[in-house]
Every structure is written in C-alpha cells, then in structure tokens.
Fold this protein.
Amino acid sequence: MTNIKKLFENLMNSFIDSKISKNYFMSNLIFVYGTLRWSESRNSVLSDSEYLGLFQSCPEYTMVDLGSFPGIFKQGNNSIIGEIYNVSKSVLETIDRIESHPDFYKRKLIKIQGIDNVSAYFLEKDKYHSYPEIKSGDWLRKNN
C-alpha cells in the first residue's frame, strides 16, 4: 500500500508542477493597483483574464495620487495593495496602450512575496515625487 501511495503522490506532484509551470511561469502576471482593479473604471479590460487574488507587495514602494488615478515608484517603504491577473498577450498589449507604456508608465517587475515574475506599471520618481503620497498603498482606501 505504501508504494501505491508514493506513486499517487508523485503523479499528483507532477500534475501540480506542470499546471503551475503552464499557468504561471509561462504567462503574463500583472499586478493592478488603480483603475484596473475590480469595481474600478477600467477593470472590464480584464474580464476574460484569470483573477488570482488580492495581494500586497513587499514594502519597497511609494504610491502617489495623480487625481483620477494613482501611480507607484520603486523607491519607498510602503506595500502596495493590488490584484494579480494572469492575462493573455492581447490583453497585456491593451493594458500597455491604456497605461501608455513605455512613454508614461513603464512595465517592470514588482516584488510580491511568494510569487515571481509579476509585472506592474511604474512612474519615474523624479517626475512625480511631488504628488500627494497615499501612505496606505491602497488606491481604494486613499481617503481613509
């Protein structure tokens, strides 16, 4: 019975590894923190994408309020609250256009504990450091 149990565990681990590899390592993981979040004005762009959940970045960033939308930069000591989606190449291209990548925002990797290869859209700190900081790191709670 022990050999059957080990065989079953090995098969399950192989299946899980291949599923993770297919879905996450060979995909486009995007961390959205502003108007692309659920219930926000541009979330419909992500309607056909796989929602992976609400996450918090490592505390290395700053979020600023640009009026109708937020921005983040890499220098800082706050965590950013956002959602991660697994998006298709065409959805990624659409988001790039919405975010004016690479002219306004620049798509770069963001550090999320436990998940690798997640991208987010960043501003250049020198151009936007004077905007009001959102210390909570959560666009949906910017007024709290």
